[in-house]
Amino acid sequence: MTKDVQSPKVASIKWGKISLENGTTYKDAKLFPGGSRTWDWNETGTHHTPGIQPADVKELLDHDAEVVILSQGFNERLQVCDETQEFLSEQEVTYHILQTEKAIQKYNELCDGYGVGALIHSTC
């Protein structure tokens, strides 16, 4: 299913900085159809271990993401909780867990055809 509202594309990433095509920058970002914001791990108690929480991805689904990209950092140190994967499966949402640069590549590819959401971690 193609969405009318497009997700913001990532222009570049380097350690500690995500730049979107619209000029907005973040350290860690939540990207979703129609917008973006800072991904503040403190809101949900996220840490590298056990990793990305179901509450982290729920907001993406609330913004009509049909595909979710979860980045694990440049060195893949950020994990994804089993509960998060179970939650996405229960919601019948396609998701990809990838190293940050690969996650951004996949995210940008999907932006043109899908309502895509992403959690992008810009460091470790």
Automatic annotation (TrEMBL):
Top-level taxon: Bacteria
InterPro entries: AAMDC, MTH938-like_sf, NDUFAF3/AAMDC
SUPFAM superfamilies: MTH938-like
Protein name: Mth938-like domain-containing protein
Source organism (scientific name): Fodinibius salicampi
